[in-house]
Structure formats: C-alpha cells, structure tokens
Amino acid sequence: MTVAYAICSVSDIPNRRGRGFELVRVVDGAEKPWPIFVVRWDKQVFAYVNRCPHNNVNLDWETNQFFEPGTKNIVCGKHGSLFELASGKCFDGPCVGKDLEPVSVCVLDGDICVVGVELAELPDEDDEEAARSASPPSP
Ligand code: FES
Description:
Blueprint lengths: L3 E6 L8 E10 L2 E12 L2 E6 L24 E2 L6 E2 L6 E3 L12 E4 L2 E5 L9 H10 L5
Bound molecules: FE2/S2 (inorganic) cluster.
C-alpha cells in the first residue's frame, strides 16, 4: 500500500518560493534524518533532498531561500551551484555533472504529500521551526 504523507498545504508555500522540512525517514527499520525542500513554480511543485552534492550541506544558507534571484534556477547558497528546477541537474558551479536527489511528491486535496518512502512521525510546525532556528548550517 502506498502511503502519502502530507507535509504542508500548497498555500503554505508562496508561488516561486520554497520551504525546507526536517523529516525523519525509516530505512531498514532505523530512523534517519531526512532534510528535504519543496519549491513551487506556478501550479507545479518539485522536491529534492536538501543536500548539495558538492559539500553535503543544506542549499538554503538563508532559511527557505532556494531560488537564484530573478530566475527559476535552484541555487546552493554556499558556493553558488545552479540546478535545473524540474530535473535537479547541476549546470553551473562546483557540482556540474551531479544532480540533486529527487523526492517524490504529489498534491492531494490541496496538500503537498511525500510518497514512496516510510516516514517516522512528522514533527509539528512549532517543533520544526525551533529545530531549524536552533541549528543553522555550519560553514
Ligand atoms: S556546497 Fe553547494 S556549491 Fe559548494
């Protein structure tokens, strides 16, 4: 049976903006941190693991800033690698030749849902905000 995990409403992410989530995935019975981000572009949503293939850090060095300003490219805030929105393929910067890891999502009744994986209990939004503000990315 496929389980869809609702992580937020589509309306929680403004058009042409993104949002990061600190999820916990269950792999072979063990719980593992699974940071992802979701970006909206008009009626489409895309999601990737929030790890830059260059240095394995979060892409959003400023919280929830995933787009290169004025474009539809995803940017890594550390060294500026640029990724295609729809494919996650890097086309400029230190990551050229590497891709973001895609996350399967769908929209059900206005909610953005993660599918194809097993998640541990979802944190409530207050816990998630506290966790993000308590652990900024390290240089
Ligand atoms: S860590 Fe992302 S481009 Fe270097």
